Amino acid sequence: MTKNDIIVDGKIKRFSFYRIVEHQLNMFAFAILVVTGLSQKFHDYNLSQWIILNLGGVDSVRLIH
Fold first, then answer.
1. Which domain covers residue 55, as residue numbers?
2. Cα distance between residue 59 and residue 6, in whole Å
3. At what angle do helices 17-41 and 46-54 cross, to 10 degrees?
4. CA 19, CA 15: separation in Å to the nearest integer?
5. Most buried one in 6, 11, 29, 61, CB count within 10 A?
6. 3-state SS, residue 54
7. pTM for the complete prediction?
């Protein structure tokens, strides 16, 4: 970034559009991994069973994870 790219409309631009999208995709992927991983680890809980059933069963959850 050049100095002219840093300040836009009087605000400091910290990240480019592509870095913001990349960050959001990483957060989404992490959330999916957390949901599918914890539902497999704690499969005895009702919430975990609900997640597994709604995602198509344990094989689908393992494929997603």
1. 3-64
2. 48
3. 120
4. 6
5. 61
6. helix
7. 0.77
